[in-house]
Specification:
13 strands; Rossmann fold; 2 domains; single chain; Jelly Rolls
Length: 192
């Protein structure tokens, strides 16, 4: 089931999921290289703004869709999948933490996982007992303190190519994470 939203922006082929759910789309963004003609016609007939980009571009369709949504909303929730091309999947996960939308609350559902971008002081609302991984993105990340985690962090640096923050456990909800430098992805592997 798709969450309710005031603004729904589809990234290219992601329109198929929204169409199958009969979900109103406000904008369709991308190079339209992976969308069926019938779905494009459906979006047009429902009044969606169609923003077409060249296939020869420096951004993924998801990045363009997030940029469009962030320019119009204070919070953005991305629904995505890591099926398909691995390079796109990795790039799209990293894009969630882009500094371009640092002023926007960005969360995501990626297949069965829930992801929150963590900058500054952050409350993580999750079920006690759930696994959460804290992954530095882009550069070193200094975590001043965490509370409500089985393995607390206290003034520690997490490296972007390290598993140091993997497989922690929520012991109190909301758990809190205080990042004083850098950005994290908080990944709850299985949504409940």
């Amino acid at each position: 089931m798709l969450p309710e939203a005031d603004l729904v922006v589809a990234a290219d082929g992601g329109l198929e999921v929204l169409r199958q759910a009969d979900r109103r789309v406000h904008a369709l963004v991308g190079d339209m290289d992976s969308i069926e003609a019938e779905s494009l016609a459906w979006a047009q007939s429902s009044g969606a703004e169609i923003i077409t980009h060249s296939t020869r571009k420096d951004f993924t369709d998801l990045e363009l869709a997030i940029e469009h949504a962030c320019s119009r909303a204070e919070a953005v929730h991305v629904i995505a999948s890591v099926s398909g091309r691995l390079d796109h999947a990795i790039a799209n996960l990293l894009i969630l933490a882009s500094p371009h939308w640092a002023d926007t609350d960005v969360t995501a559902t990626v297949d069965a996982a829930h992801i929150e971008v963590v900058r500054g002081s952050h409350s993580l609302h999750a079920e006690v007992g759930e696994t959460v991984s804290l992954l530095a993105v882009g550069a070193r990340c200094r975590v001043l303190q965490t509370c409500g985690l089985e393995y607390p962090l206290l003034d520690e640096w997490l490296e972007p190519a390290s598993a140091r923050g993997v497989s922690n456990v929520i012991t109190d909800s909301p758990a809190t994470i205080n990042v004083v430098e850098g950005v994290l992805l908080a990944v709850i592997p299985v949504c409940t």
